[in-house]
Amino acid sequence: MVGFSEMKQLIVNADDFGYTRGVNRAIVEACHQNGRGIITATSLMANAPAFDHAVELAHKTAGLDVGCHLNLVEGRPLSPASAIPSLVNADGQLLGARRLGKRLLTRTASGAEIECECAAQVDRMIAAGIPPTHLDTHQHAHLHPTVATAVARTAQRYGIAWVRRPFESFSPPTRLGNVKRRILAAGLRSSARSFDRIMAAHGLRCPDHFSGFVLTGALTVVGLRATLALLPDGATELMCHPGYTDAALARLPTSLQAQRQRELEALCDPGVRDVLRARGIQLISFRELSAPASRAERTSALKMAASGGQASSQAR
């Protein structure tokens, strides 16, 4: 955990970069760097259909943090099926979240094979000229200790300091978001201590807080503003899933369709930036959070943000 308690810092991290061209375009359009939205980071799926397009856009978008959205549950893996037999079906496709979950519970999914596929996905990003700034997983697979350990070992191996801590720290009012997700998020908190021990044992860091799980599929302007109103001191990662609804997205096994476009609208809403300024919230990336800075610099950045000015890029 970071522990910069004297500031409110926000990493807005868009999942599923590389999923479709429409998702890729939406993420880049909503980048803080482009002046339209508030996204400061994204997580790239190295085995997704639009990976090459995402890489092209990433190289053109200066300052955008790009991490690896490790995908162990959907599509075809990058590793040969013979190298990861416990993770694939007879057609060589990844098992899907439910079947992988069953194998994890019965201890028939190999941690070594999970690490092998994680490494293959990171390797593909590095080969494309994009060393990941952070790691997370598609459909939060690293909630399970076996996957968390494989992810931690991968991060340590490649010198990647940051890993998502996928436990909802706070939620918007109960009228907002998905009730089932809210209940699930509460239940998952019992796994947080085990997760923290695994990350600490590998010398890894996580932002102080995490949000966006409950609002997945319901991150409207109202929901986003409500989340910002509750933002605690410290560094928070807000997960989001913007995208354009198109035929390519409709062909993929995701329940997030039109919802992605609504998230895009929320992330680009002009009033959201006003809320950030009014509440003294500093948009920041994983890369910036890693850079050393003095307490005085961070305090100065907070004062500038509160007064509506541009926070120094050196204030963390």
Architecture blueprint of SSEs:
Layout: E1 8-17, H1 21-29, E2 41-44, H2 51-60, E3 65-70, H3 97-105, H4 111-127, E4 134-137, H5 145-158, E5 162-163, H6 179-188, H7 192-201, E6 209-211, H8 221-229, E7 234-240, H9 247-250, H10 258-267, H11 270-278, E8 281-283, H12 286-290, H13 295-306
Helix pairs in contact: 1-2, 4-5, 5-7
Architecture overview:
This protein is of the alpha/beta class and 316 residues long. The protein has a single domain (8-306), classed as Glycoside hydrolase/deacetylase (TIM Barrel, Alpha-Beta Barrel). Helices cover 41% and strands 12% of the residues. The protein contains 13 helices and eight strands. The protein has helices spanning 21-29, 51-60, 97-105, 111-127, 145-158, 179-188, 192-201, 221-229, 247-250, 258-267, 270-278, 286-290, 295-306, and strands spanning 8-17, 41-44, 65-70, 134-137, 162-163, 209-211, 234-240, 281-283. Strands 1, 2, 3, 4, 5, 6, 7 and 8 form an eight-stranded parallel β-sheet that branches. Helix 4 packs parallel to helix 5 (145-158). The two termini are 14 Å apart. Mean pLDDT is 87; it is low at 292-316.
